Amino acid sequence: MVRDSPVQLQLVIWYIPVGMDWLLLLGLVSFLIVGAIASFYLYVFVTRTKEEFRAAQPDLRVTNMSAMSSGNVLTVYPELQNLGGGVAYDCLLHMGGWEGSFSVKKIYPRGPRGQKHVASIVLGPDAPIRTTLMSHGYIRLRYLDRWGQKYDCWYEVTQVGIGDVPLYNIQIDLEHPELHEPHPSFWAMRRFLRTVPLPG
């Protein structure tokens, strides 16, 4: 009976681990490639969903402001415009120290049905914002998107004295609004995009 020589046994012992190392390395590289491709497509899917959701959101803003004074009556005209891609529903504008509000059922975004809405805020000599110094003056713009989520946009209002007259005029900062917007999860965005929207 012929037995293997020590040299032949040594070759067999060294051959097996080297072959296993190559298989492990090949499996690891394949796993990394598949993982990278899956991550890329997942990133694209998530990004596209977020962009689609953002494009369907309204973005209502006070884009311009004018005022007219007649005697002791100050009338302020905020101009509302929807800068987003979705319809803004149940829009309500209110100012602290003004006993009133301005509302619009729907404000469409820019396009064939889009238009600017001008509110009228009449502040007579007995309006609280004109007679009493307020610690925090504001204009609040509230609206809903097509899924019923609430949006709030706050503008700071500053009272300005009028010489010796015991009344205040107002200045409204349109450049630095304070925004309170919904931040749904990715899965909530997917669910919203699949639901039937409110009638436009």
What does this structure look like?
This protein has 200 residues and is α+β, with helices and mostly antiparallel strands. It folds into 2 domains: 1-55; 60-183, Immunoglobulin-like (Sandwich). The protein has 3 helices and 10 strands; from the N terminus they run αββββββαββββα. The strands form 2 sheets. Strands 3, 4, 7, 8, 9 and 10 form a 6-stranded antiparallel beta sheet that branches. Strands 1, 2, 5 and 6 form a 4-stranded antiparallel beta sheet that branches. Strand 1 and strand 2 form a beta hairpin. Helix 1 (6-55) crosses helix 3 (186-194). The chain is elongated. The N and C termini lie far apart (93 Å). The model has no long low-confidence stretch (mean pLDDT 84).
Which keywords apply here?
200 residues, alpha+beta, Immunoglobulin-like, six-stranded antiparallel beta sheet, four-stranded antiparallel beta sheet, 36% strand
Summarize the structure.
This protein folds into two domains: 1-55; 60-183, Immunoglobulin-like (Sandwich). The protein is built from three helices and ten strands, in the order H-E-E-E-E-E-E-H-E-E-E-E-H.
Chart the SSEs and their pairings:
Elements: H1 6-55, E1 60-70, E2 73-82, E3 88-95, E4 102-107, E5 117-118, E6 121-123, H2 128-131, E7 137-144, E8 150-162, E9 165-172, E10 178-180, H3 186-194
Antiparallel strand pairs: 1-2, 2-5, 2-6, 3-4, 3-7, 7-8, 8-9, 8-10
Helix pairs in contact: 1-3
